[in-house]
Amino acid sequence: MTTTPNAIGRLPWERMFAGHVADDSGDVITAILKQAGGDGTIAFSGGFPHPATFPKDALAESFTRILQDPASLQYGPTAGLPGLRDWFAGWLADHDGLRPAEDELMITSGGMEGLGLVVKCLVDPGDRVVVEAPTFMGALVSFQRASARTDTVPVDSDGLDVDALERLLTGPGTPPKLIYTIPDHQNPTGVSLSTERRHALVALARRHDLLIVEDVAYRELGFGDVRSPSLWSLAPDVVAQVGTFSKTFTPGMRIGWISAPAELVGQLVRAKQNTDQCSSGLGQLLLEDYGRSGRFDQGILASRAFYRARNRIMTDALAEHLPEGVRFTRADGGFFTWLTAPDTVDPDAFREAARAAGVSYVPGAAFYPDQRGEHELRLSYSRVDDATIPEGVRRLASALASADRR
Q1: Ranges for all domains in the chain classified under CATH 3.90.1150.10
Q2: pTM of the predicted model, to two decimals?
Q3: Closest CA to 337 of 187, 227, 132
Q4: Cα separation of 344 and 40, whole Å?
């Protein structure tokens, strides 16, 4: 005998969802990010790496050999496979001048899991956290779902305003537990934290018992020859570095890392046991093989050149086509540039004009916890073809001009 579901109605989902679940305002952003250009839209919205940078030949070469390793298809240690952790600890020593101890490094399923584990282990409802304004929208959602109180510190051409952070830390109220920062080629602005401010930030963190959560998703994709020290290498006692291999290997493998004090890593490993238990063994073995072959560093050099050229095309097009009064950042690495339009531009009219023109972007409000930023927007040049970028900027500039109320 077959039965049918109760036809009386539906569950009262509005009452059943937890209080930290995001409201419907995120639907607009989700819709924009889904625009991949298949309908003729030029999508400056999604911050995805370009498939041309993926090491497909190296993966094909390694795949059959790696499958012979029993660890490739089996559960693995929650902290990550020993071989990958050993190789990457050495890589950090070579490139950042500091090797994490065995109990100071763990492998995660991408950078977002790493950030989520940090929030899960450290942030209780009502705790204060500090973020840059603007900052990565995924971090804002993580803090929102932990019911944290999110304070902001502005960003300028030299990155996080450390003086403003100091004023916040010495102000009234319960001290914040942590500050989340993207010091290298920030998402969404593309700017980097100056070396002077890096030293000032870690000194401030030590003075105020503040944990710095350093997101280094774009650190290896700098366009110049100057490489500032990572915050973790300057102060491993007060920094949790959250990283991802999505931009330097492949996003599909979902591999990242956390390097942090052993006390914190121990808690993060225990928390991971209750999320995905362990990251993909197959992906970890492929990454280790790729890294030990020397092709990881070669791939980073190629990716830097690839995105440097694309950034130059974007910057030149913005300088040529944007209406007077529109400002934009000149990124020194990564995937993004940040536009600020005059207050005379009607944001609703601009959004409709851009949609009609067939060009997408991410509105600035997505990068602030208080929904400010209505005259700002993020553009990503990472996955748009070279020949298409100028046309997309021209369409965007036309939409901006048509939405100006002057």
Answers
A1: 23-53+298-402
A2: 0.94
A3: 187
A4: 29
